[in-house]
Amino acid sequence: MLLKKVKIRLSILLALSVLSVLAIFLLFKVLEDNVLYFYSPSEIKNSDDINLKKKIRIGGMVKKGSIQSYERDIKFIVTDLKNEIIVSYSGTVPALFAEGKGVVAEGSLKDKKFFIAKRILAKHDENYMPPEVQESLNKDAK
Amino acid sequence: MIKYLNPSYVFKISGKLLNLFKTLLIPLVAIGLIFSLFLSPEDYIQGDSVRIMYIHVPSAWISLFGFAAISFFCILNFLFKIKNVTLIYKSLAPIGLTFNIVAIVTGSLWGQPTWGTWWAWDARLTSMLVLMFFYIAFIFSYKFIKSPDRSIKACTLISVLGLINIIIIKYSVEWWSTLHQPSSISLAKETTVHFSMLIPLGLMVFALFMYVAVIFLMKYRIETIRVKKKGFKKL
Lengths: 142, 235
What we know:
The structure holds 2 protein chains of 2 kinds.
Chain A: H1 2-35, H2 41-46, E1 56-62, E2 68-69, E3 73-79, E4 84-90, E5 102-111, E6 114-123, H3 131-141
Parallel strand pairs in A: 4-6
Antiparallel strand pairs in A: 1-3, 1-5, 2-3, 3-4, 5-6
Chain B: H1 2-5, H2 7-39, H3 53-80, H4 84-114, H5 123-143, H6 148-175, H7 195-230
Helix pairs in contact in B: 2-7, 3-4, 3-6, 3-7, 4-5, 4-7, 5-6
């Protein structure tokens, strides 16, 4: 008697789970683009419809040796190691903004290769270590 | 087996456990804080802000495990109608919510000096915020829905949806591009936190989980006393 009730409840639960997974999956399908926080240079290159007026974010690594500072402006290249985008920005950058590090730029595309940023965010990677370790890693790399 | 499920037996044992945990708690927190605030090094790029991680990461874990636990007990209650477990999830849910908020606030405090922003609507941060709303909804549905039957049903629905959200939180940093960094510590790959920082992190995880255990047992005992006085129906 009890067992039967439990079975009924169990099947309700399973049905509920399947429905929920399906609903959430569909929700994310609809949201698709909005779930991505930024686009990589390759995604920009491969996309067909680029809205130049729309505010978007692009992200990747600041290419080594690419930062050019002018009086108030700064120019650098964002790369995902396959494709690159030149970013121009005027204003202050976060303290962690550096060559070879991750970056997210918010603004709009001028064309597929040139991006005008209104805001720069530094992206931190998953590595945590003391300065000495970083130095010895750098030495090893050289 | 029945003996161990008997509320008065559990009450007696939980009192002993509580005393033990209380004694352990202060030294654990002290050692954890000394390591994380003084003995551990600065990060090579974040400097001292790395110390926020020693609170942020344990808090986030507690909020995730906490929700998984309350969902488990809620579903158990839904399936088998074991009334005792309502005490467990009622005691655990507010703790989970608190640490969820701690994780969000400390993350925000860390984000400002490192990313350059307090908040970003990326998948990880948003799903953590959603978890907070699931916690609140869960607490509301056992607090304000008077009929126990309907309250269990509401809690079960929130549990199922919330568990899916837990999976989304876990994998958000892998499935989508996010501002939040990927996990540094996982079972699948080598950890990317240096040893000298892993020690304070481990100690803080231990200390905060002990704190959760203490608060949980205290709350659980209070709930038990309340049930004894009023009976289950009037809760």
